[in-house]
Amino acid sequence: MTKQKGTSLLLLALGLSFTQCKNETYQTQSATDGAAVTATQKEYTYETAPNDPLNARIYTLSNGLKVYLTDYEDAPRVQTFIAVRAGAKNDPADATGLAHYLEHMVFKGTSELGTQNWGKEKVELDKIEALYEKYRATKDETARKKIYAQIDSVSGVAATYAVANEYDKILGAIGAKGTNAYTWVDQTVYVNDIPSNQLERWLELEADRFADMVPRIFHTELEAVYEEKNRTLDNDGWKVQEAISAALFPTHQYGSQSTIGTIEHLKNPSITEIKKYYTKYYVPNNMAIAMSGDIDFDQTIRLIDKYWGSMEKKPEPAFDVTQEQPIQKPIVKEILGPDAENISIAFRTPAINDKDAIVIEMISDLLYNGQAGLVDLNLNQQQKVLQAYAYDTPMKDYGMFRMTGMPRQGQTLDQVRDLLLGQLDMIKKGNFDESLIQAVVNNDKINTMKAYEDNSNRADAFVTAFIYDMPWQKFVSRPAAFASITKQDVMAVANKYFGNNYVLVYKKTGKDPNAQKVEKPAITPVAVNRDVQSEYYKQFMAKEAAPLRPVFIDYSKDLVETTMKQNIPVIYTKNKDNGLFQLYYILDMGTNNDQKLGMAVNYLKYLGTDKYTAEELQKEFYKLGTSFDVFSSGDQIHISLTGLDENFEQGLNLFESILANAKPNQQALNDMVAGMLKAREDAKKNKGVILQQAMVNYAKYGAKNPFNTNLSEKQLKAVKPQELVSIIKSIPTYEHRVLYYGPRETDKLVATLNAGHNVPATLKPVPAEKVYKEVDFAQPTVYWADYNMVQAEMLFLSKSVAYNKDIVPVVRLYNEYMGGIVFQDLRESKALAYSTYSSYATAAKKDRANYLQSYIGAQSDKLAEAMAGMQALLTDMPLADANFQNAVASLKNSISTERITRSDVLFNYERAKRLGLTYDIRKDVYQSANTMTFDQLKEFQHKYVKGQPQVILVIGSKDKLNFKELEKYGKVKQLNLTELFGY
C-alpha cells in the first residue's frame, strides 16, 4: 500500500528540546511464563516528557532500536507500528519503487516461515534472482520474453516448496486486525492491531520477519504492484499530486522519484537491489517499534529486548538533502482525465522541524478548518465555488502547502484560482479577525483530545516523532508552541513563503493523450499449498497464550434509557475519559419520505437567524469548540451537536436557535441549487460513485431506485426558500429520540434538554417510510458502464435471504475463511488483481435482504481470467482445513478482545433495534465459534452462495472490454449514465 499525503496535521511538534530521563531497575522474568524471577537484573533507561497526554516512555535498546510505549486500556489490544526511516526518497535513482517492492516482500516469510524445504527452495530463488539481473540488463524484447518465460517456469518450481501467506495466516489466527503496511517518501511503516495476550508471540514473529527477509513468490507479487501502479494511472487525483511534486521538487527525490516507481523501473526489477536496500536500511538503529494499548511497560520492554535486542547494529544510513532552487514564477501544468475539473495551487514550504513549519500549519487551519476558516466562510459557505480546501503536508526535508478548488457551473478554473489566492492574500495582509487564531488553538486541543481516544492515533504520534527526528519533549511541546503563534508571525511567514512561487495544476476533463499502463506479462499461476504448513508455523501455532474473556454489551447496564419532556426517549452513556460530548436527535424519516427533506437539511448550513448571519454562526460555534451537522439518509435524519461539554448549554441554545429561527435566503437557495446541479454532473464522472452506488442500487432495486430518485432540475428550481425553512422548523415537531455521550450525569442532562430543546406539546408521528422493493435476480445479467480507464472493475452481486440472526455466526466464519482464500487465489497465486474481496453482508434492517458482494479490479486484458477465477471460488469453495482452523481462531480471538465503548455503544444499540435484537449478537457468534464445523461452513456455502442468482456489474473502457467473455455470464446490458443517475 502507498500513502499519498502527509502525516496527520495534529502530528506536528515544535518547541523546547529538553528531555527528562529516568532509570528503572527490575528483575527480568523467564520467557516461558512471564512470572518466574531470575537473579539477573537489567536496567532500562527511558525518556519521558512533562505534561505528556500519552504518559509515554521512550526507550533505546543497546543496538539503537527505538521503542515508544503508552499504556491505554480501552480494550485488551495493542496498536503496533514498526517504522523504518527509509522511503521512496531512498530508492536508487535507477530503481525507483524499490522501497515499496521491499514492503511487499517483507510479508512473504523467512527461511523458516513460508517454506516446506528451504534448502531446495533457495536453489530456485537464487536462479530467479540471477535471471532478473539478466532480464534487467537485456534490451532486446524477444530475448527478454524468453528470459521472463524462464523466470515464470523457475518460479513455478520454487512455489512448490513455498507456503503462501503463512504470515497473514498466523496474524489472522491470533486475532490481529488491520495487518498492512505503507510506503511514503520518508518512511516505510508496518501496521498491526493485536490482542494484548498475544504480545510475546507477535514480537517473536516480527523479530524473525525483520531479521530474515525472503523475497519468495516474487513475480506474482510484482504483478500485484503493476496493478497498484495501474490504479494510480486511473486516478486523476494521484496524477495531479505527482505533477505537483515533480514541479515543486525537480531535483529532490520528493519530486524526481515516484513511490511506486516508474513504469520502466517496474518492468526491470532487481531482487539483488532489494536485498541491498534491506541490508542497508532495515537495521535496528534505523527502526522503531511504537505501541499503544493494554500493556505493562516493564514486561513489554523486557520482551522487546529479548526478541529484538540481538539484531545487529550497523552504520546509520546517511541521506544528502538536495537543495532546491527558488521558484521564480508560477509553474503551470495541465492534467487530463475523466474526473470532474478542478484547480490546485501548491507552494514549497520548509521541513517539518523548521521553526516556520508550525506557523504554516496555523495558516492552513486559518484558511480551512472545515468550519470557520477563510476558505470555509468566504468560498464554501458563500457558495462562491463548488468546493474548496487547503492543507499542509510536512515532510522531513521540505514541506508542501496546497489549495484546491472545484468550479461551479459556468465558472472558469482561473476564476477559482483567483478566489483561492485572494484568501491567501487576506492572510498575508492580516485581513482576518485575530480571535480566529485562539479559536484554531482551542479546536486543535479538542481535535488532539479526540484523536488520543484511539490507539492508532496515539501510536502514530510516535511514528511521526521518530521518522522526523523529533525528541519526544519537542513533540509534546507542540500545543504550547502552536498556542504562542501571533498574528504577526502568521503574516510574516505567509509573506515569506507564499508569493509568485507556486505550482498551478489545471485538472481538466478529457482523454489523457499520454495515458500509460503497465502491460501484463505472461504469468503461470503458482501453487499456494493451502493444506501445507512450515515447521515454523506448526511450532508457532502449538504455543498457547493465556485466553482472554470476551466482554459483550449489556444494554440494560451499559446505557441508560430515560425520558425528557413530551416523553422523548433519551439514551445515554457516560464519557469517563475527557470533557467532550456528542448529542444526536434521531428521526425515523428521510429522503425516501420526501426528497425536499434532503434539500432542507443541506440548506440549513447556508442560513442565518434573526441574530446571526450564517458566517457568524459558524464563527460562534467554532469559538465554543462545538460544531453541528445534519445528515439525512433514505429513512433517517441525524441532527448532531458535538464539542466541549463545558459549553454544552451555549452550544445547545445556539443550535436550537438555528432550527427554530432559520431565515429564508433566496440567493443562498439559488446558489445551492446551482451547486447541486453541478455536483450531479461531477458525480457522473466519478467511477466509484458509478459502480458502488449507481450500479449497485440499479441492480438491487431496478430502474427506479433510492439512488436515482431525485427532484428534476425544474423541480429544484421551483422550490421556495420558505418551503425548506418550514421543513427545517418541522423537524423537531416529529417523534424522535435523543442520544448523548458525554461526562455529565443523566439528571443534569435531562434538565438541560428540558430547558433548551424546543419541542411542541404534542409530537407528530413520523410518516410511513416509502420502501423500495428489492428485485429478484431472475436471470444472470451483466450490467456494464463505459468509463475511460486503464483497468476494469467488477462486482459479483447475489441477493440472498432476509436478515436472520441464526445464520450470523456462520456468516462471520464464512467471511473470515473466504477472505484469505480469495486473496491467496486471485492475488498471490494468479496475480490477477491488487485489490479483491468477497463478503456476505447481512442487512442493516429487519426484513431486508442479505447480499453476497465480490469485487475484483484488474487490467482489462485480465478480465476473462479474473471473472473465471472469482466465479470458480464462489461456485466451488476450496476446502482447506488449515484455513478453516485459522478462521475459527481468528473469529474467537477477535471477539474476545473486541470492546465496544463510548458513543459506539449507542449506535450498536440503534443497529440492534433496527434488526429486532435485544442483545449483543456477538454473543451468538462467539459461542458458536467453539462448535462450528467445516460441514456447517460447506452447508452455508452450498445453500446461500453456490449457484445463487447473480448479477455482475462491470465498469471499464468500451474499447478494452471483452464482450464475448461477458456474455458467458448472462445477458449483457449497457447502462448509460442517465439511466443510472436519473438525470
Entry summary:
This protein is an alpha+beta fold and about 1000 residues long. The chain contains 36 helices and 25 strands. Strands 1-2-3-4-8-5-7-6 form an eight-stranded mixed sheet, with helices on both faces.
Count the E strands: 25
CATH homologous superfamily label of one domain: Metalloenzyme, LuxS/M16 peptidase-like
**Spatial strand arrangement across the major sheet:** 1-2-3-4-8-5-7-6
CATH class of one domain: Alpha Beta
Tell me roughly what share of residues is in helical segments.
40-55%
Largest sheet: 8 strands, mixed
Discrete helix count: 36
- Quaternary structure classification: single chain
CATH architecture of one domain: 2-Layer Sandwich
Mean pLDDT across the residues is: 93
Low-confidence stretches: 1-39
Find the CATH topology of one domain: Cytochrome Bc1 Complex, Chain A, domain 1
